[in-house]
Design a protein that fits this description.
With 853 residues, this protein is of the alpha/beta class. It has three domains: 207 residues, P-loop containing nucleotide triphosphate hydrolases (Rossmann fold), CATH 3.40.50.300; 214 residues, Rossmann fold; 228 residues, Rossmann fold, CATH 3.40.50. It is 35% helix and 21% strand. The protein contains 20 helices and 30 strands. β18 and β19 form a beta hairpin. The relative contact order is 0.07. The structure holds adenosine-5'-triphosphate. The site of adenosine-5'-triphosphate has 16 residues, from α9. One of its GO terms (molecular function) is DNA binding. It holds the Pfam family FtsK_SpoIIIE. This is FtsK/SpoIIIE family protein. Keywords: ATP-binding, Nucleotide-binding.
């Protein structure tokens, strides 16, 4: 190419470039004209955003609004005041690029947050996690309930430590779970309303947050209406909702949620909050390490706060309280602090339920020690009955190891018989009647007035505790009917006379038994205490006790209906045995030195003659003696004896194969030996069966030691001796013919011996000749005495293991009820027309091995 051509081309390029440049300049000028003038308000916007950020921080300090990715680890937790409005951050508004501020909504103490999207949208799930974390981290004693009907609980998996520590329950994921959460939320609102009515300060009322990540499929219109109603009552009821997935469905619009901020989820920068005219960005999910840290320190704090020990139940000083208007004691604590329950006009009786191992005994011990520490014996008397195997109340009674007792305790039954229970209840009815007539005489209608009227009269409030009370109703027999009658009377009238019942049962049937009694005594028990596994003491619609664990109880003073529940923690008082022993000793030292220890009936215990309170005072005296046979199953554990007066029929037959029969005879003759001066009574001892010969020898030795000259009669001499005896020659005192194993007499005494025996039975007592005999078989005994018609000759029968029916048939009383059992006997005295359940005396030093019962 020539240089000219090259020059032309360069010139063309230059012209083209020039025209591009001109064009560009033109375009820039044009463009510049279209651009707005530089923004003079930019600094003001930045300043406003900074002000809004500050305001948000002030409204929602610390965890409530700090960005969670950068929140310092030492940010104070749960420092927010428990009353007032709590604002929680939900996102960031960015009205113009580069200008942003946090968005907080008034939630706790104010209202609710409603989100149209649900947790299936990860942005919503993140927001909910953030709101949850911010709320629990900032607000003390906030109860949380979680529902996730759209992602099977996944929205809240990070809250697992709270669930594990039972700070909150597992996330509800279905319709039933949602309804349960609503039940609890409604109960919460009622509780708060009651608290307000009682004048409890707002800060002391519980606060609850329910977060719904999405409703379960097919949530009914009724359930949605319940949610809307809760929202309506929420702010006053200190219940707040974060409700995600709340939107119209195909068939009907979602009910309006009052007091709520509505958040509409749009595209990434287009979320909208009611009344905020700018779009916002939702808060992301908190970083997992922040969740771990916050939830971890919450559970530690919770553990520390809810731990409670026996000292928390006790007053500072002992015996300072007056029971004039009722009794009251701390039984545990809840979110509001110490929980005190009362036995008074409003809650005169308590009903306690708990599965076996649910902590019933521990709870009762806490109550009893708490009462005993507050009220002295002039203010409080305790009657304690336990029908199960165990040693629940033995620590209130003196023992070889520890001679102390709780001075307010009047009677204790451990492994009690139903008869003992009835005896105690009957005695309490007697006291009720006495108080009623004293009040009538004094012209007063209240126990408090009677106490003022008769200051010298001892009128403590009486608390009768019956553990496993359903045993009283077992059998549906006479005893059961009597027990129901006693309980009904005490439950109905006790309130006015200062007599209170605390009934505890582990079984539903126990409670049902009470429920089905006449006119339902149940209604007399407004105070219900449900331990784990004891839903049955609450109303059948009340599920509050379903998920509680050992050491917790639902206390309900509204007869068990929903809305009156308080969830409490109570301590394991048995874990600190030393402290309890210290308390017991302190109370014991405070007692009146003349006061008597409680009567203790231990169902399993054997009774021994030498330990009988009457034994030491037995002394020779003229006149007939009494055969001491055992201890009564009654409130005084009285000595059971029969008088051997010179009156026809005063003979005693002990019946049954139980080897205790020989021991009873032993006790009878040893006791009689102490009631007659040497030489002033004749003792004939007849061992007819091998196993009884040792016992017979022991009895003879004891009589010899008392100065008597007992005669041991061999089987072969029996007939002659009987023939001689029925001459009824005058003697220096009574004659006691004691036969061990009379059922073996048939082959040895022949017809003459038997005739003489029957004559002795019929005519002997009038002459001071008495039979004390043990027959192992009732049938043989009947034959030996000469058949049924001769039964009048033996007025006193002590039946061991003889079936009640046979016994009834023999004595001609078809209504006789007796269930033979180990270590028990029934004394029938036909002259007094009485029967008495008895623990027969055993020889303490007998050989351990004895034939099976
Ligand atoms: N508040 C508590 N905290 C921790 N452990 C407890 C608490 N209460 C009871 N326990 C423990 O639970 C166990 C059972 O308690 P308890 O004997 O009171 O149950 P119960 O309901 O009376 O059972 P049962 O009817 O079978 O006698 C005990 O080992 C006790 O230490």
């Amino acid at each position: 190419m020539s240089w000219r051509t090259e020059l032309d081309r360069a010139y063309q390029d230059f012209r083209r470039a020039q025209s591009h440049l001109d064009r560009a300049g033109e375009l820039i000028d044009r463009q510049r004209a279209a651009l707005p003038a530089p923004d003079a308000t930019a600094p003001a916007q930045a300043e406003l955003a900074a002000l809004l950020t500050q305001a948000a921080r002030r409204l929602a300090p610390g965890y409530l609004s700090e960005p969670l990715e950068t929140v310092p680890a030492d940010t104070p937790m749960r420092g927010h005041p428990a009353s007032g409005t709590v604002h929680v951050r939900v996102g960031t508004a960015e009205p113009v690029p580069g200008v942003e501020f946090p968005v907080v909504v008034p939630l706790l103490g104010a209202g609710h947050l409603v989100v149209d999207g649900d947790a299936a949208d990860p942005r919503v799930a993140g927001l909910l996690r953030s709101v949850l974390l911010r709320s629990v981290a900032a607000v003390p004693r906030l109860s949380i309930r979680l529902v996730d009907g759209v992602t099977l609980g996944q929205a809240f998996t990070s809250a697992a430590p709270l669930v594990a520590e039972r700070i909150t329950e597992p996330t509800a994921t279905d319709g039933a779970g949602l309804e349960r959460v609503l039940d609890l939320a409604e109960a919460h609102v009622h509780e708060v309303q009651r608290g307000r009515n009682d004048g409890v300060a707002a800060a002391d009322l519980p606060l609850s947050l329910v977060i719904v990540a999405g409703l379960p499929p097919q949530t009914s219109r009724a359930v949605r209406a319940r949610i809307a109603a809760l929202a309506h009552a929420g702010p006053l009821g200190r219940l707040h909702l974060v409700l995600a997935g709340w939107r119209d469905d195909r068939h009907e619009p979602a009910p309006a949620i009052e007091h709520a901020a509505y958040l509409t989820v749009g595209d990434d920068h287009g979320h909208r909050l009611t009344r905020l005219p700018v779009p916002l960005r939702l808060d992301p999910a908190p970083p997992p390490q922040v969740e771990k840290r916050v939830f971890g320190s919450l559970t530690t704090a919770y553990r520390r706060e809810t731990s409670i020990d026996v000292a928390d139940l006790m007053p500072e000083d002992h015996w300072r309280e007056s029971s004039v208007t009722g009794l009251s004691t701390v039984v545990g604590r809840d979110a509001r602090g110490a929980v005190e329950l009362r036995l008074d006009d409003a809650t005169p009786h308590w009903l306690i339920g708990g599965r076996t191992g649910g902590g019933k005994t521990v709870f009762l011990l806490g109550v009893l020690y708490g009462l005993a520490a507050r009220y002295g014996p002039r203010e409080l008397a305790l009657y304690l009955l336990d029908f199960k195997e165990g040693v629940s109340f033995t620590e209130f009674t003196p023992s070889d190891r520890d001679p102390s007792w709780i001075p307010q305790v009047r009677a204790v039954g451990v492994e009690s018989d139903r008869e003992y229970g009835n005896a105690v209840l009957l005695a309490l009815r007697g006291e009720l009647t006495r108080r009623a007539s004293a009040m009538k005489r004094a012209g007063v209608t209240k126990l408090a007035d009677l106490r003022r009227h008769s200051p010298d009269r001892s009128l403590p409030r009486i608390v009768a505790v019956v553990d496993e009370f359903h045993v009283l109703f077992a059998g549906n027999d006479r005893l059961a009917r009597e027990a129901a009658g006693h309980l009904e009377e005490l439950a109905r009238k006790g309130r006015s006379y200062g007599i209170h019942l605390i009934l505890a049962s582990q079984t539903i049937s126990g409670v049902e038994a009470l429920y089905t009694k006449r006119d339902s005594i149940f209604g007399q028990f407004p105070m219900r205490i449900a331990l784990p596994g004891a839903r049955h003491v609450l109303d059948h619609l009340n599920t509050a006790a379903e998920t509680i664990r050992l050491g917790q109880a639902v206390v309900n003073d509204g007869g068990g209906v929903t809305g009156f529940d308080r969830l409490i923690q109570f301590p394991d008082v048995t874990a600190d045995g030393e402290r309890l022993a210290g308390l017991r000793h302190a109370l014991w030292r405070l007692r009146d030195p003349d006061s008597a220890p409680p009567n203790v009936f231990a169902g399993y215990a054997e009774q021994h003659l030498v330990e009988d309170p009457r034994f030491p005072s037995l002394a020779p005296a003229p006149g007939p003696g009494r055969a001491l046979l055992g201890r009564g199953v009654d409130t005084d554990i009285s000595t059971v004896s029969v008088a051997l007066d010179p009156v026809p029929g005063r003979n005693l037959a002990v019946l049954g194969t139980d080897p205790a029969g020989a021991d009873v005879l032993h006790a009878a003759v040893v006791g009689l030996g102490r009631q007659h001066a040497p030489g002033r009574a004749v003792f004939l001892l007849v061992p007819l069966i091998g196993p009884a010969s040792d016992v017979c020898r022991d009895a003879a030795d004891a009589l010899v030691a008392a100065g008597h000259k007992p005669e041991v009669v061999n089987a072969s001499d029996l007939a002659d001796r009987l023939t001689d005896l029925v001459e009824f020659r005058p003697q220096p005192g009574p004659v006691y013919l004691t036969v061990f194993g009379g059922d073996a007499a048939g082959p040895v005494w022949g017809t003459a011996g038997q005739k003489a025996f029957q004559r002795l039975l019929r005519h002997g007592p009038a002459h001071g000749y008495h039979l004390l005999g043990w027959w192992r078989g009732l049938r043989r005994f009947i034959d030996d005495i000469g058949g049924g018609p001769a039964r009048e000759d033996v007025a006193c029968l002590l039946a061991l293991n003889v079936p009640g029916g046979e016994l009834g048939a023999f004595i001609g009383n078809a209504a006789l009820e007796y269930q033979p059992r180990q270590n028990r006997a029934l004394l029938i005295d036909r002259h007094d027309n009485t029967t008495k359940l008895t623990v027969p005396f055993r020889r303490p030093d007998r050989a351990d091995e004895e034939p099976a019962w």
